[in-house]
Amino acid sequence: MALDVESRTPVVDQDGRSVEELVVNVGPVHPSTHGVCRVIVHLDGEIVTEAIPVIGYLHRGIEKMAENRTYLQVVPLTDRLDYVGSMYSNWAYCRAVERLAGIAVPERAEYLRVITCEMQRIASHMMALGSSAADTGAFTMFIYAFDVRERVVELFEELCGSRLTYNYVRPGGVSFDLPEGWTERLLAFTRQTPAALDEMDRLFFGNVIARGRLKDIGVLSAEDAVAWGASGPVARGSGVSWDLRRDDAYSVYPRFTFDVPLGENGDCYDRARVRLFECYESLRILEQAVEQLEPGRVMAEGWPRLLAPRAGDAYDQIESARGALGVYIVSDGSVRPYRMHVRAPAFCNLALLGELAVGHTLSDLVVVLGSLDPVFGEVDR
Amino acid sequence: MSSFGWGALFGLLAGLAIALAALLGVWAERKVSARIQMRIGPNQAGPAGLLQTLADTIKLVLKEDITPRQAEVGAFRLAPFLVFTPIAVSFIVIPYAFGWAPLDSSVGVLFFLAVPAISVIGVLLAGWSSRNTYATLGGVRGAAQMISYELPRTLSVVSLCIIAGSIAPTTVLGEWRWWWLPLNAIGFVVYFISSIAELNRGPFDIPEAESELVAGYFADYSGIRWAIFMMSEYGGVLAASLFGAAMFFGGGLGVHGWPGVLIMIAIAAVIATSMLWAKWTFPRMRADQLMSVAWKVLTPLALLQLLLVGVVAPWL
């Protein structure tokens, strides 16, 4: 059995001596597993010969729990999927419900969804960049990234009273309109953040040691990225130009001009760099969205709060910070979903770990894991 | 009093001095890292949080001294002392001004460079006796790293001994002239970098690599034994900074007596702070990158320095 920690493969080294592989059980509690990932690593010296991610330590049965709740009660559950980017799970779920029930969302609500999700993208990428920098030992970069993340979280707290699990996007719209003066504080944030991002770029990506640690590590070809179902910055780091915001053109995204940053080599450096550049693009979108924002309703009218959509199914997906996040709902006509399934991008991306880490050292394993940016609430569900 | 009595008394005083210095070192590290990271750092216990590390030490002393069930008990318990003692002993030959050293040894430079190297045995022993894969990897990495960086570190100091014509630290300090500084600039850079690596501190903290090996060779230690590992790390930083100031900067830049001692301590403080600065700015290197820096960059640079001094020395 592959998960047997005791099984060691005998190896004969170049001098003909019989040696043994070292099996290291990394996690589930380990400083660099970004939650509760367990990786069984087979080492030949310090070189990884096999890395098997073992998931399921954070499984809470959210998809099953959804079957026993009304459509509105499922929204707080989706907060707990990707807890670094709760807005995305909220939105992906609500889009599927709206498609199923045929609810038309007011325009202002769509704008608020775009604004919160682009802020969420910055917050989530800051977490990814900061923690993967901390994996290489650059703890100062982690603090700098969390400074930016903190500003986003403070704005969210003011908007919906919560710092991590927002429950903000609801079927039919969003829960609250903007507080007074909030857009000015958001614009102040968009003005200040580029300087902070530039500073991080110089501090970490300009550093010769950081380049040495990230470049040519965990190289993922564009073909492999597509074949393994990778999405988000992991796929775009390999040069796969696929961004649902542009290619699916959902919500009001066609009204904004933004670029989709792409990597060239598909190594850890490119994946991290793509995340950094996406933050600049998110800031561009935020500025345009605030400019185009018109007064109006933030919640659709004329539909019952106890939703009972027609029998049938619906799937909808959005571009989360980790990739294509989809929610599939089957309805039997009752007030509760008959079945809900989440297509979690972090789950698909994490599958690449075993491929990318082999041949590198144990030190690179944590860098590769960090560059895939898994959030285990979403992987295990 | 017998000579043994004097030795024991000196040992006790030196141990207390190093412990106090380590307390200050931990406090300085927390304050410097806080400044670099836009934080405040300890500020509750005592003025500017100065008593914070004292409180931490009391906590560490009172904590349970855990020995893992599978560990080699004797070796596991001995290892922290094997790391700490050589570093503590090395303080004895550091000169503070011309003729002022606790032990004015005629082979002091050799003593300072050779004796702390014994602590590599403690690192290896700690990693091996824990019977823990992380600790074993950390111990093996530590042994490889510390032995590799011995060479450039020693070579960088050798050029000073050539100019001074002596391996007695007080003689080197006494012979110091201002033009030694530009002449030995490369040597000082090599000494600085390889000292950081020798002490397993960031960006070369590969043996303890928190994000990969949890805590490396001392992952299974707790309480006072863990504190002794920490003390030897800060003691090592202090010893390397003081020795660097004494050798490369002639103690207090050639000033004799007490003013010279104070200048030397100030220079050592700058060197120690730079070591903290490097740790909190740079990411950690990988083990193979570290080795190539030692053998492909620092050792040739140290040899170049030696060549430079060897060419210049006959005309002095």
Structure characterization notes:
The complex is a heterodimer of chains A (about 375) and B (about 325). With about 375 residues, chain A is of the alpha+beta class. Helices cover about 45% and strands about 15% of the residues of chain A. In chain A, the strands form four sheets. Chain A has a three-stranded antiparallel beta sheet with strand order 3-4-5. A three-stranded antiparallel beta sheet of chain A has the order 8-9-10. In chain A, helix 6 (about 180-205) packs antiparallel against helix 11. Chain B has one domain (about 70-315). Chain B has helices at about 5-35, 50-60, 75-90, 110-115, 120-130, 135-165, 170-175, 180-185, 185-200, 210-215, 225-250, 250-255, 255-280, 285-310. The longest helix of chain B has about 35 residues, at about 5-35. The interface of A and B includes residues 23, 144, 361 and 363 of A.
Question: How many separate domains of chain A?
Answer: 2
Query: Distance between termini of chain A?
Result: 25 Å
Quaternary status: heterodimer
Give the SSE string of chain B.
HHHHHHHHHHHHHH
CA-atom Rg of chain A in angstroms: 22 Å
What's this entry about, in short?
The complex is a heterodimer of chains A (381) and B (316). Chain A is built from 15 helices and ten strands. Chain A has 381 residues and is α+β, with helices and mostly antiparallel strands.
Sum up the structure in keywords:
heterodimer; A: 381 residues; alpha+beta; Cytochrome-c3 Hydrogenase, chain B; 2 domains; 3-stranded antiparallel sheet; 15 helices; 10 strands; 14% strand; B: 316 residues; mainly alpha; 0% strand; globular
Which SSEs are present, and which pair or pack?
The complex is a heterodimer of chains A (381) and B (316).
Chain A: E1 10-12, E2 18-20, E3 22-26, E4 38-44, E5 47-54, H1 62-65, H2 71-79, H3 86-101, H4 107-135, H5 139-160, E6 169-170, E7 173-174, H6 182-205, H7 208-214, H8 222-227, H9 233-237, H10 244-247, H11 268-292, E8 312-320, E9 323-331, E10 337-343, H12 345-350, H13 353-357, H14 362-372, H15 376-380
Antiparallel strand pairs in A: 1-2, 3-4, 4-5, 6-7, 8-9, 9-10
Helix pairs in contact in A: 2-3, 3-4, 4-5, 4-11, 4-14, 5-6, 6-11, 11-14
Chain B: H1 3-36, H2 52-62, H3 73-90, H4 108-114, H5 119-129, H6 133-164, H7 169-175, H8 180-183, H9 185-198, H10 210-213, H11 223-248, H12 250-253, H13 257-281, H14 287-312
Helix pairs in contact in B: 1-2, 1-11, 1-13, 2-11, 3-5, 3-11, 5-6, 6-9, 6-14, 9-11, 9-14, 11-13
